[in-house]
Automatic annotation (TrEMBL):
The organism's place on the tree of life at top rank: Bacteria
Compositionally biased residues, Basic and acidic residues: 139-148
Region listing for Disordered, in residue ranges: 130-150
Name of the molecule in the record: Uncharacterized protein
């Protein structure tokens, strides 16, 4: 695909779906299924019972897990902490708490790439060939940093140069880089968006999730095990008062432990500035991830 084709096509956004508020679990023996609803707990239980019945039927039919289709599909089971609306009152982003307790930003208004430095060497060769070599074809970079992260940042810079109509922000993370792309006006599930994410060397599991949920995600707070904590034992939503109390204790410990860590730090800005909504989402991201506290270790 020609590089310019990625940003020239006009994409009409569908309305971003809120995360379900209500979740209920149905179980028969060792088999269980979760159901969800934005309306009521009874609706969630009805969905759970239907999914359980379908799962049992699929199992008895001899279908493997990866061939059960919609029986295994579910939206992220995460507690909504905050919703961000655009100027027309349409949902633009959600901050939720994921399964291991970290705050996560989910949105369809930004493209967010997760670049693992383990993928940098093969990606750097293919991307420089694709982009024509920002520094004179196949010549070696005159930059002094040839570490995996140094190579990753050069790939991101090459990407930004090849897409001058986009805005590109690179953030160093514990394991590589996070890249926020603005100005694309693409749904995350679109082939054009997937092409951009893949040009950055994005983790393939992450790309699959972007397509599946039509949402890009960015973790805002540290992973607990990088701060000396285990992941929470209690899943959300809590089904007993004891579980709720245990979850509250863990959250208090987590919030105390993460004060000494940042999630990422800004490594570079390239291209065009973001629009007003994109800038609002970036400001939320940057504040929550503590990018200005450069003395803190990344987690």
């Amino acid at each position: 695909m020609p590089l310019n084709a990625v940003v020239c096509r006009s994409i009409r956004f569908s309305t971003m779906e809120p995360l379900p508020t209500y979740w209920r679990r149905a179980q028969e023996g060792l088999i269980y299924a979760w159901g969800w609803s934005t309306q009521s707990a009874d609706d969630a239980l009805s969905v759970a019972n239907e999914r359980l019945a379908n799962s049992i039927k699929a199992i008895r039919s001899g279908l493997s897990r990866d061939r059960r289709g919609s029986y295994g599909w579910a939206p992220p089971r995460e507690e909504t902490l905050h919703e961000i609306l655009d100027a027309e009152g349409v949902l633009a982003a959600v901050v939720s708490r994921n399964r291991y307790g970290a705050d996560v930003l989910g949105t369809d208004r930004l493209l967010i790439a997760d670049v693992d430095v383990a993928q940098v060497r093969p990606m750097a060769r293919s991307l420089r060939k694709l982009f024509g070599g920002r520094r004179g074809g196949g010549k070696k970079s005159d930059g002094p940093d040839d570490s995996p992260k140094g190579q990753a940042l050069r790939v991101i810079q090459d990407f930004a140069t090849a897409h001058p109509t986009l805005g590109v922000r690179a953030y160093e993370t514990f394991g590589g880089f996070r890249v926020i792309v603005t100005g694309a006006r693409l749904e995350p599930k679109s082939p054009e968006a997937v092409a951009l994410l893949e040009q950055l060397g994005t983790d393939q599991i992450y790309v699959h999730l972007c397509r599946k949920y039509n949402t890009c995600r960015a973790r805002l707070t540290p992973k607990p095990w990088r701060c000396g904590l285990r992941a929470p034992k209690h899943i959300w939503p809590s089904e007993t008062a004891e579980d709720a109390a245990g979850a509250a204790r863990w959250l208090s410990e987590y919030q105390a432990a993460t004060t000494g860590f940042a999630t990422c730090r800004l490594a570079g800005r390239f291209g065009l500035p973001p629009d007003a909504l994109e800038a609002q989402l970036i400001e939320l991201h940057d504040r929550a991830t503590r990018i200005t506290q450069t003395q803190l270790p990344l987690a």
